[in-house]
Amino acid sequence: MIDVIIVGAGPNGLMLAIELALAGIRPVVCERLSAPTTEQRANGLVGQVVRMLDRRGLYHRLVDDPAPPQPAPGFVFGALPLDLRAVPDNPLHLLQVPQAHLERVLAERVAELGVQVRRGHEVTGLTQGVDDVRVAFSDGTTLRCRYLVGADGGHSVVRRLVGIGFPGVSTDRAVSRTAHVGLPAELVDVSTGGLAIPGYGTVPPFRHTRTERGLIVWAPFTGRPPGLSTIEWPDSAQFDGPLTLAEMRASVARVLGVDVPIAPPAGDGPHLLRRLVGGNTRLAERYRAGRVLLLGDAAHVHSAIGGPGLNLGLQDAVNLGWKLAGQLHGWAPDGLLDSYEAERHPVARRVTMSTQAQSALIAPGSEVTALRVLVGELLDRPENAAHVAALLAGADIRYEMGEPGGSLVGRWAPDLVLHTDAGPVRLAELTRPARALLLDPTGTLGPVAAPWRDRVDVVTGRTEVGTGPADAPPGRTDGGTSTALLLRPDCYVAWQSTTDGGDGDRLRAALTRWFGQPRTDRS
Ligand SMILES: Cc1cc2nc3c(=O)[nH]c(=O)nc-3n(C[C@H](O)[C@H](O)[C@H](O)COP(=O)(O)OP(=O)(O)OC[C@H]3O[C@@H](n4cnc5c(N)ncnc54)[C@H](O)[C@@H]3O)c2cc1C
């Protein structure tokens, strides 16, 4: 019997396959499409996910730069500028990468780890037994597995087959259009990369620009044709056939109030012409029904504004992987698998709050313009910009660890450099095998964790906050040169030493809570 069947070879299904394989489980990925899709979706990653990919050794497969990820000096929130230069410990990282490239890199890693991806396998039915799930495919074949994960996108068949509700709201008013375009060279401001449009003004690059009639985004990508996107909210709209450049040009003229001479893009296609009408904000009622779990878009859908989808979904996968592996290896304590939903459902709810708030801020009308003036004033304050940056990054998450200890408990471990006997090493290099880690600056706690050594690695060395020599300014040492940390495989801090004594007992309790009974105690 197969341990885990993952339905869907999208980015989130592939990421889960990597996490399970690193944890010693061999899942099988079943994908209905016979070849990777050519649909163009995400243009980039926004938030903590960029550093999370670094912590799995995947960042440098996507980026041609040996330096660790660096925070972004600015971004946008609801088409308002977000200046992050004065934000201390700015958590917001960005990575411009087409989703197809990300999926290629994930698929390569999946193949390296020996995971089978069975294409042309469309799931059409499933039945749960006491200790298995029987999966039916459209060609009449069946497979049995111990657990099944539906990573089959927003229209998830798995979610429907297990009867998990998907409440939320659907709207049919917003019409968004995106096209690869050619524009006269004289419209492009070479110093900023923005568009200088006579009769309107400047449309900056890679920023949402709102007018009282709609929204426009100009995206001058390198190595691929530039893109233009608009969003409008017409009272009624009917369309005959797919988007054309003439329709795109008319939309840009309505949004900006002036005509822009849009031409076909240069170079070979396929060139993007996409019209989407309406949108959904929906969250699965539950992430688990018996032996079936939901992941990524199958569990939550929302507006793509601000690009939060993959930050959410890929970190769902990293949260679920080690817990499901623990369940299959037999060491998972009671409730570990259910902590996936307990931890990630509220995160998804927070993302939908953020995308709905941003959608409200880009809507047409003079009242919204007035609201934007006020919110813009608030975002000018660094403390408010920091709050929103943490929201967009997902850096404001604090999981309940059942452990009263220090300020890092429940939080994602900061970037650290460990000064070990073998020299300095970035935390991101230590977390690549996706195992739990005890960072022990004094070398005294290793024996406490020794009975869990099949699940927890111990690293002895002084810790320093920062990403190492490439960091400017250099790393700080106030993050706890003498602080010991227990990190779960998803890099969240499960335990932190204190100065009150009793560290050994508290560490033992945390190890048992997250990694079950020690090896010597198990029958
Ligand atoms: C226009 C657009 C722009 C976006 N931009 C961004 C962005 O800039 N940044 C960002 O982070 N996110 C963005 N997103 C969101 C991001 O694309 C999604 O969150 C992401 O694709 C979800 O991945 P997934 O693996 O959960 O699902 P999907 O990518 O939908 O993959 C699901 C897979 O399951 C397969 N499948 C479905 N049903 C079955 C079945 N019955 N049997 C077997 N296989 C099945 C499908 O063929 C598919 O391959 C954007 C989305 C859209 C639509």
What's a concise summary of this model?
This protein is an alpha+beta fold.
Main attributes?
523 residues; alpha+beta; eight-stranded mixed β-sheet; 13 helices; 28% helix; globular; binds flavin-adenine dinucleotide
Number of strands: 27
Distance between the termini: 24 Å
- Tell me, briefly, the overall form: globular
Major sheet characteristics: 8 strands, mixed
Give the percentage of residues in beta strands: 25-35%
Structural class based on helices, strands and sheet pairing: alpha+beta
Ligands and ions found: flavin-adenine dinucleotide
Q: Approximately how much helix is present in the residues?
A: 25-40%
Low-confidence stretches are 469-480
Radius of gyration: 24 Å
Count of alpha/pi helices: 13
Question: What is the mean predicted local confidence, pLDDT?
Answer: 93
